[in-house]
Design goal:
about 270 residues; alpha+beta; 5-stranded antiparallel sheet; 10 helices
Length: about 270
């Protein structure tokens, strides 16, 4: 019988847990036992753990006896609206699927150091135990991490739109085949080549649009980082919305020291990746 890498990792993980039942800490053991006895995951987590974050679909908790992992529990406390959806438009199934995607071992193998590693998962995916990632400290921290630290964006909503446009076009530029994003980047790179080499001749009357050239240059800066390219390519391939590339959804792994997406923000039906 052929032993797959996934099966081997599962065997190793189960062996560790059997041999060292407190491998992830006593608090996690207490959480698992109470959950197994029928207590709601969110109630137990609130009782014995420390909440460090909350979103539309999940609540995140830290452990006092293990600073390297966090528990992500589906958020069942959001007020419900119509058609079994909460006020944000998410059903319980959406929230479960968010955990399913993040816990997908194949996805973690396909996109290493992009998503936090998952160590344990509830049978119903109502919670997952995953690698702790230190969140970024705001927008400037994000700009520094993606080679835009020297750029100045407008404040408020306008600046957010400017930044999201850069990320959206960068994601498009990494997709296979020809597209407008690739053409835009090729054009600005060609112009800069002519500007930096006086031996090259180009129509002196060509129209230069400073605003547009700045926009394209920012995209090139972002794409100059190989790890950021991997992140944005993964977002494009998995259909993760560009808006999720934000300071509140990015952090630095305490294991690898690399930038990671805290939440894959995938609520569509889970399918096995290949």
């Amino acid at each position: 019988m052929k032993l797959t890498k996934r099966a081997l990792l599962e065997i190793i993980k189960k062996s560790l847990i059997v041999e060292y039942p407190e491998y992830f800490g006593k608090k996690f053991i207490e959480f698992k036992n109470r959950f197994s006895e029928g207590e709601p995951a969110l109630s137990v987590a609130r009782d014995i753990l420390s909440q460090i974050g909350a979103g539309s679909t999940r609540v995140v908790f830290s452990f006092s006896d293990n600073p390297t992992v966090v528990l992500k529990v589906i958020n069942t406390e959001v007020p419900m609206g119509q058609n079994s959806e909460d006020i944000h438009g998410f059903t319980r199934r959406h929230k479960i699927q968010s955990n399913q995607w993040e816990a997908d071992l194949t996805m973690q193998q396909m996109y290493p150091d992009i998503f936090p590693r998952t160590f344990e998962v509830a049978r119903d995916y109502s919670w997952i135990l995953s690698e702790r990632v230190t969140p970024l400290n705001g927008f400037q921290d994000l700009l520094n991490a993606i080679n835009l630290g020297d750029e100045v964006f407008a404040g408020g909503r306008i600046g957010n739109i400017q930044f999201q446009a850069v990320i959206e076009l960068a994601i498009e530029a990494l997709k296979p085949g020809e597209n407008e994003a690739k053409k835009m980047i090729s054009e600005i790179m060609l112009m800069e080549a002519f500007d930096s080499d006086p031996t090259l001749q180009m129509d002196p009357g060509r129209e230069r649009k400073p605003g547009m050239n700045l926009f394209k240059t920012r995209i090139i800066k972002v794409l100059s980082n190989s790890h950021i390219r991997k992140m944005l390519r993964a977002m494009g391939e998995l259909d993760i919305p560009p808006r999720e590339f934000s300071a509140k959804n990015l952090g630095v792994s305490e294991i690898s020291g690399k930038l990671m997406l805290l939440d894959a923000s995938l609520w569509k039906p889970h399918v096995k990746l290949r």
